């Protein structure tokens, strides 16, 4: 498994020690233009690397600072001729549109963007993900607009403990894990902490059940956290990442 490190939160370069793992680090030059233009360049680089590894028979793992990078991961797998369903572990829904978001935070739109066209998905050549091909895991912190969308959508939403072969779509799978899915009291320092979540052990066990299907074609891990406050916090993050990538 090739690990592709994307040391960015949106288009902001993160400190070198923000993503405590080893692999191929991507740091493309950004073109002039607005945020969408810069994100397209970044996600295209991700897609190119994911496509090459997938086409060669690998199972790439992408580690980044935000959930938007999953768009590049999905586009890359599609470029290699694979159309996966998506299993999305997250404390949040990431189901906003630009119209429904009260904050304008693009990371809160990532899964919804994967299911439709936008200024970043169209240049990537990303084929929209069908709602019925998306499984949202946990998502304990939803805004009213996201709750309303889910009531009328075909997206499957399950708690971490319910993840198993019976709730997963058929065919290949892209596994996305936003590490804020872990309870904020255990994995600290998140940009958007959500209390009352599952333990790291429960999340890892659910991830293993998805991997045990043998159908995961790529793994995408988002680490939207502030710089580690001390060695203990840094070690906790490195341990969880290592276990996910093992």
In short:
It comes from Actinokineospora soli. This protein has 246 residues and is an alpha/beta fold. The chain has helices spanning 35-55, 69-79, 110-114, 121-124, 144-151, 200-211, 231-245, and strands spanning 3-6, 8-9, 12-13, 24-25, 61-64, 85-92, 134-141, 156-158, 173-178, 216-222.
Write up this protein.
The protein has 246 residues and is α/β, with parallel strands linked by helices. It is 31% helix and 19% strand. The chain has an eight-stranded parallel sheet with strand order 4-1-5-10-9-6-7-8, sandwiched between helices. The protein has a two-stranded antiparallel sheet with strand order 2-3. The model has no long low-confidence stretch (mean pLDDT 95).
Count the E strands. Answer: 10
The total tally of domains equals 1
Strand order of the largest sheet: 4-1-5-10-9-6-7-8
CATH-derived architecture: 3-Layer(aba) Sandwich
CATH class, please?
Answer: Alpha Beta
General form: globular
Distance, first to last CA = 9 Å
Q: Regions with pLDDT < 50 over 5+ consecutive residues? A: none
Count of discrete alpha- or pi-helical segments spanning 4 or more residues: 7
Task: State the CATH topology.
Answer: Arginase, Chain A
Strand-residue fraction? 15-25%
CATH evolutionary superfamily: Ureohydrolase domain
What's the overall average pLDDT, rounded? 95
What Rg, in angstroms, do the CA atoms define? 16 Å
What letter string, H or E per element, gives the SSE order?
EEEEHEHEHHEHEEHEH
SS-derived structural category = alpha/beta
């Amino acid at each position: 498994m090739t690990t592709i490190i994307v040391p960015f939160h949106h288009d902001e370069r993160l400190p070198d020690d923000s993503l405590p793992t080893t692999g191929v680090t991507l740091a493309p030059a950004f073109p002039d233009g607005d945020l969408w233009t810069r994100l397209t360049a970044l996600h295209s680089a991700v897609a190119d690397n994911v496509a090459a590894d997938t086409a060669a028979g690998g199972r790439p793992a992408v580690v980044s600072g935000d959930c938007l990078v999953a768009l590049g991961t999905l586009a890359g797998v599609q470029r290699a001729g694979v159309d996966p369903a998506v299993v999305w572990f997250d404390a949040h829904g990431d189901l906003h549109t630009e119209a429904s978001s009260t904050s304008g935070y693009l990371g809160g739109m990532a899964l919804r963007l994967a299911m439709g066209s936008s200024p970043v998905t169209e240049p990537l050549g990303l084929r929209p993900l069908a709602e019925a091909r998306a499984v949202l895991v946990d998502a304990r912190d939803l805004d009213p607009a996201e709750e309303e969308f889910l009531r009328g959508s075909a997206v499957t939403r399950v708690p971490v403990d319910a993840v198993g072969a019976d709730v997963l779509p058929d065919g290949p799978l892209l596994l996305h894990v936003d590490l804020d899915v872990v309870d904020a009291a255990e994995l600290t320092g998140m940009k958007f902490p959500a209390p009352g979540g599952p333990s790291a052990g429960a999340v890892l066990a659910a991830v293993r059940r998805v991997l045990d299907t043998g159908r995961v074609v790529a793994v995408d891990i988002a680490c939207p956290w502030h710089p580690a406050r001390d060695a203990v916090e840094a070690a906790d993050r490195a341990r969880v990442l290592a276990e996910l990538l093992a």
